[in-house]
Structure to design on (607 residues):
């Protein structure tokens, strides 16, 4: 009956890349299944800490061996939960649930993969690019990567060798083009052939919302990994709802943790929002 | 630790006999199937499913949750697939298990409660109903029934008349006098009461000056509410003679035992399921271990054994020594 479990994990290292950005490597038991890029884990330090609930993070790296696997997470500290993670030291234990959710899929007719990464959205997309590189006939990978400033282009070292083309934008112009990544993409969009290219995007919700506007008049395919705050991560609490369009202008909610986190961008609804900035909230009852 | 077979964990709630006193709280365990891969549902006392309404319900816009000190706020807005889809799509799976399946129901009108109760009574595989008269998330409905003794009694009476099943009424803590509401639903025919549902709360993103929840307010759950829940359960136990089920902030066996000792016949575990999907099994084992350590053969031996000075006096100074 029982087929899944909370995997105990041990911290291999938890390296500060900047004061706010960390690379966390964990060793897990072999029971941790091979993840699909775009899938995530729920993680919390073992024991009862001040933060009770696990936090969701996309898989950034994975290596499976017979005697155990190793995963990597790339994260930014923004609140109490991520700061609690940042305090973890090598050798300490964590509880991991995963791999969870539905990852990215690649159509058979796609031979150009366009990655659109905003900030920490780079994590699942890097993992995806790495996995694509190992396929028999790897597609061409064109990446657009944006961040606020140069120092927040986290993971650039690992990403760049995986891409045939890499376009960078920073809001202050300290690296690459000045501006937001969606503008840079919009300016170059016509170079991509909708019949053979597919977009994979991950980043803050305002970025995905802009992207959906940009793509509205095109036939470019686009899968996005969406973020919502989660409690359970396994489909039970309904806390992680995201709005999707239903026939007849109806709205329905899907669970990001198990119906996603990867969705077709065209299925998602954005413009009912008074700006909640991070997520597509709507205040109508 | 394995539960010792010599210890009897059975409890009865009216005509309903549970294998053990640990249930999963409504809204925190989905429809059971989400947790089945992590542990054997057969071990549970009961599974209480997400609140069901007559028609499917979309729920509130996101963001719907925020962790707060020792707890969490949620404003799911009672999203659910509707009672008919539950019976058709979810109940067959749950019927396969040994644990009791309790359907949590709510409505926006008394008639809706009645109809949901009627439909579930005719479905096979539902052991009892839990009537949510307390959810603070939906502007209409919920709160109005649970906050007034008359309205609470009215819903109880009508559901009881419509249902051929044991009826447990779940109370809201967002009231002035919990004992008064407890007595009102007892008089109206409830077979048991459960409490507490979430406490209405709020949290603000100071940088952006926006509420963390799109709904602005939400229901607080988790260990933060446990002392309040425990106090209310204790008051309810003294106010009524029907079984009382304790809910609120239970994370482990020790917490569950607090409720049993003040007189709860059983407990429900909610938010803790999100922290560890196997937590209910650990709590059951922990209760067994406690009983063994205190040389009790049955869990009923510790229910309502709180030693207050008053209780000691009534007992003629004796009390239970363990
Ligand atoms: C599927 C999925 C994958 C994710 N992958 C990654 C990843 O690879 N790397 C990474 O750094 N983060 C990732 N996140 C986001 C990460 O889960 C949150 O940053 C984290 O949960 C915040 O926890 P906290 O306790 O530090 O913040 P909290 O104390 O919960 O919140 C602090 C503040 O940040 C805001 N906030 C909370 N969550 C988010 C969010 N998701 N987006 C924007 N603002 C938020 C809150 O509104 C609040 O004001 C992912 C989220 C999801 C759902
Ligand atoms: C996400 C979530 C959803 C809930 N949904 C319901 C519900 O549908 N019906 C209900 O009666 N109670 C609901 N509750 C309340 C719980 O059943 C329980 O009464 C409350 O959370 C207190 O217990 P806890 O502290 O152990 O979580 C919900 C609670 C949470 C956290
Ligand atoms: S986080 Fe609980 S349903 Fe998605």
């Amino acid at each position: 009956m029982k087929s899944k479990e909370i995997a105990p994990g041990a911290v291999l290292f938890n390296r500060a890349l900047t004061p706010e950005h960390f690379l966390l490597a964990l060793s897990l038991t072999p029971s941790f299944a091979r993840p699909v890029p775009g899938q995530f884990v729920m993680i919390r330090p073992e024991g009862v800490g001040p933060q009770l609930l696990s936090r969701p993070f996309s898989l950034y790296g994975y290596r499976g061996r017979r005697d155990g696997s190793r995963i990597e997470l790339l994260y930014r500290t923004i609140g109490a939960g991520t700061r609690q993670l940042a305090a973890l030291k090598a050798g300490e234990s964590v509880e991991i649930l995963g791999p969870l959710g539905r990852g990215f899929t690649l159509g058979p007719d796609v031979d150009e993969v366009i990655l659109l990464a905003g900030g920490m959205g780079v994590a699942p997309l890097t993992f995806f690019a790495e996995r694509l590189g190992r396929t028999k006939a790897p597609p061409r990978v064109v990446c657009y990567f944006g961040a606020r400033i140069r120092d927040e282009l986290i993971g650039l070292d690992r990403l760049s060798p995986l891409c045939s083309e890499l376009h960078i934008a920073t809001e202050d112009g300290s690296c690459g083009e000045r501006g937001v990544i969606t503008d840079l993409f919009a300016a170059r969009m016509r170079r991509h052939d909708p019949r053979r290219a597919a977009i994979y995007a991950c980043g803050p919700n305002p970025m995905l919302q802009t992207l959906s506007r940009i793509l509205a008049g095109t036939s470019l395919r686009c899968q996005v990994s969406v973020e919502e705050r989660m409690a359970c991560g396994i489909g039970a609490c309904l806390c992680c709802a995201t709005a999707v369009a239903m026939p007849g202008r109806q709205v329905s909610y899907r669970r990001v943790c198990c119906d996603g986190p990867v969705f077709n961008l065209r299925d998602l609804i954005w413009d009912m929002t008074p700006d909640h900035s991070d997520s597509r909230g709507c205040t109508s009852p | 630790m394995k539960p010792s077979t010599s210890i009897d964990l059975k409890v009865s709630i009216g005509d309903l006999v549970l294998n053990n006193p640990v249930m999963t709280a409504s809204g925190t365990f989905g429809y059971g199937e989400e947790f089945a891969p992590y542990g054997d549902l057969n071990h549970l006392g009961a599974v209480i499913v997400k609140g069901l309404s007559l028609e499917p319900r979309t729920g509130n816009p996101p963001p719907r949750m925020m962790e707060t000190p020792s707890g969490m706020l949620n404003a799911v807005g009672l999203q659910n697939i509707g009672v008919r889809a539950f019976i058709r799509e979810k109940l067959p799976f749950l019927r396969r298990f040994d644990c009791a399946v309790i359907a949590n129901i709510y409505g926006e009108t008394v008639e809706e409660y009645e109809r949901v109760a009627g439909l579930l009574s005719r479905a096979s595989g539902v052991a009892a109903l839990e009537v949510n008269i307390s959810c603070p998330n939906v502007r209409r409905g919920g709160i109005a029934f649970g906050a007034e003794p008359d309205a609470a009694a009215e819903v109880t009476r009508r559901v009881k008349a419509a249902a051929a099943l044991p009826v447990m009424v779940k109370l809201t803590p967002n009231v002035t006098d919990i004992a008064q509401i407890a007595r009102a639903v007892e008089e109206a025919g409830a077979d048991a009461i459960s409490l507490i549902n979430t406490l209405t709360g709020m949290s603000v993103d100071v940088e952006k000056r926006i509420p963390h929840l799109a709904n602005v307010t939400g229901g607080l759950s988790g260990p933060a509410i446990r002392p309040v829940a425990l106090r209310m359960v204790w008051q309810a136990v003294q106010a009524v003679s029907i079984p009382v089920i304790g809910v609120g902030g239970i994370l482990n066996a020790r917490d569950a035992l607090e409720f049993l000792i003040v007189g709860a016949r059983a407990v429900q575990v909610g938010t803790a399921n999100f922290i560890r999907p196997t937590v209910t099994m650990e709590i059951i084992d922990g209760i067994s271990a406690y009983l063994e350590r205190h040389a009790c053969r049955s869990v009923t031996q510790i229910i309502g054994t709180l030693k207050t000075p008053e209780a000691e006096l009534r007992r003629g100074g004796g009390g239970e020594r363990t």
